[in-house]
Specification:
Layout lengths: L18 H17 L7 E6 L4 E6 L2 H20 L7 E9 L5 E10 L2 E6 L1
Antiparallel strand pairs: 1-2, 3-4, 4-5
Helix pairs in contact: 1-2
Length: 120
Protein backbone atom coordinates (compact mmCIF):
# COMPACT_ATOMS: atom_id res chain seq x y z
CA UNK A 1 0.00 0.00 0.00
CA UNK A 2 1.27 3.45 -0.88
CA UNK A 3 1.67 6.20 1.66
CA UNK A 4 0.08 9.09 -0.25
CA UNK A 5 -0.13 12.68 0.89
CA UNK A 6 -1.82 15.28 -1.26
CA UNK A 7 -1.35 19.00 -0.91
CA UNK A 8 -3.54 21.31 -2.95
CA UNK A 9 -2.49 24.90 -3.54
CA UNK A 10 -5.03 27.64 -3.92
CA UNK A 11 -6.21 28.31 -7.44
CA UNK A 12 -4.21 30.90 -9.32
CA UNK A 13 -5.90 33.18 -11.82
CA UNK A 14 -3.55 34.76 -14.29
CA UNK A 15 -3.25 36.01 -17.83
CA UNK A 16 -2.14 33.53 -20.48
CA UNK A 17 1.02 35.60 -20.88
CA UNK A 18 2.11 34.50 -17.40
CA UNK A 19 1.32 30.76 -17.64
CA UNK A 20 4.81 29.59 -18.65
CA UNK A 21 6.75 31.75 -16.20
CA UNK A 22 4.38 31.01 -13.31
CA UNK A 23 4.55 27.25 -13.96
CA UNK A 24 8.35 27.47 -14.25
CA UNK A 25 8.75 29.28 -10.92
CA UNK A 26 6.29 26.97 -9.17
CA UNK A 27 7.77 23.70 -10.47
CA UNK A 28 11.39 24.69 -9.87
CA UNK A 29 10.55 25.82 -6.33
CA UNK A 30 8.77 22.53 -5.55
CA UNK A 31 11.64 20.48 -6.99
CA UNK A 32 14.25 22.51 -5.11
CA UNK A 33 12.41 22.20 -1.79
CA UNK A 34 11.87 18.47 -2.35
CA UNK A 35 15.56 17.90 -3.11
CA UNK A 36 16.79 19.27 0.22
CA UNK A 37 17.81 16.41 2.49
CA UNK A 38 20.77 14.07 2.71
CA UNK A 39 22.06 14.91 -0.75
CA UNK A 40 24.06 17.90 -1.87
CA UNK A 41 22.18 19.88 -4.50
CA UNK A 42 23.50 22.57 -6.76
CA UNK A 43 21.02 25.37 -7.25
CA UNK A 44 20.97 28.92 -8.42
CA UNK A 45 18.66 31.82 -7.77
CA UNK A 46 16.66 33.04 -10.74
CA UNK A 47 15.06 36.48 -10.87
CA UNK A 48 11.82 36.58 -12.86
CA UNK A 49 11.33 40.03 -14.37
CA UNK A 50 7.86 39.06 -15.52
CA UNK A 51 6.66 37.96 -12.05
CA UNK A 52 8.99 40.25 -10.11
CA UNK A 53 10.16 37.51 -7.75
CA UNK A 54 13.10 35.17 -7.22
CA UNK A 55 13.05 31.36 -7.10
CA UNK A 56 15.62 28.58 -6.86
CA UNK A 57 16.36 26.33 -9.81
CA UNK A 58 18.34 23.09 -9.60
CA UNK A 59 21.48 22.88 -11.73
CA UNK A 60 20.44 19.55 -13.25
CA UNK A 61 20.16 19.45 -17.03
CA UNK A 62 17.78 16.44 -17.11
CA UNK A 63 15.34 17.97 -14.63
CA UNK A 64 15.47 21.38 -16.32
CA UNK A 65 14.77 19.85 -19.73
CA UNK A 66 11.84 17.86 -18.31
CA UNK A 67 10.37 20.95 -16.67
CA UNK A 68 10.73 23.05 -19.84
CA UNK A 69 9.20 20.32 -22.01
CA UNK A 70 6.20 19.93 -19.72
CA UNK A 71 5.71 23.70 -19.46
CA UNK A 72 5.68 24.00 -23.27
CA UNK A 73 3.17 21.14 -23.57
CA UNK A 74 0.94 22.67 -20.90
CA UNK A 75 1.03 26.18 -22.43
CA UNK A 76 0.45 24.74 -25.93
CA UNK A 77 -2.91 23.36 -24.75
CA UNK A 78 -4.11 26.90 -24.16
CA UNK A 79 -2.53 28.33 -27.30
CA UNK A 80 -4.08 25.68 -29.57
CA UNK A 81 -7.57 26.09 -28.11
CA UNK A 82 -8.33 29.64 -26.92
CA UNK A 83 -11.55 28.36 -25.29
CA UNK A 84 -9.56 26.44 -22.68
CA UNK A 85 -9.34 28.51 -19.56
CA UNK A 86 -8.34 26.10 -16.78
CA UNK A 87 -5.56 23.62 -16.17
CA UNK A 88 -4.08 21.58 -13.36
CA UNK A 89 -0.44 20.87 -12.51
CA UNK A 90 0.21 17.69 -10.55
CA UNK A 91 3.64 16.67 -9.22
CA UNK A 92 3.98 13.24 -7.60
CA UNK A 93 6.99 11.97 -5.69
CA UNK A 94 7.35 8.33 -4.76
CA UNK A 95 10.00 5.82 -3.77
CA UNK A 96 10.35 2.42 -5.34
CA UNK A 97 11.05 -0.63 -3.25
CA UNK A 98 13.83 -2.57 -4.83
CA UNK A 99 17.33 -3.59 -3.79
CA UNK A 100 18.72 -0.12 -4.40
CA UNK A 101 16.80 2.78 -2.88
CA UNK A 102 15.77 5.39 -5.40
CA UNK A 103 13.44 8.34 -5.54
CA UNK A 104 11.40 8.93 -8.64
CA UNK A 105 9.47 11.97 -9.74
CA UNK A 106 6.30 11.88 -11.74
CA UNK A 107 5.26 15.16 -13.34
CA UNK A 108 1.77 15.40 -14.79
CA UNK A 109 0.28 18.46 -16.40
CA UNK A 110 -3.32 18.39 -17.47
CA UNK A 111 -5.86 20.58 -19.10
CA UNK A 112 -9.33 19.30 -19.66
CA UNK A 113 -9.11 15.63 -20.62
CA UNK A 114 -5.47 15.59 -21.79
CA UNK A 115 -2.80 14.34 -19.38
CA UNK A 116 0.97 14.31 -19.76
CA UNK A 117 2.96 12.11 -17.41
CA UNK A 118 6.71 11.52 -17.34
CA UNK A 119 8.77 9.73 -14.70
CA UNK A 120 12.50 10.32 -14.24
Amino acid sequence: MLNVHEHWLEEMRLSRAYVKECARAMLHTILFQRSIGNTVVEARTIWSEQLELAYCKLDDREINELVETKIREFADLFERDPRKSTGCVCVNFFTTKNKKPSVRMNLKLQSGSQNFTVAV
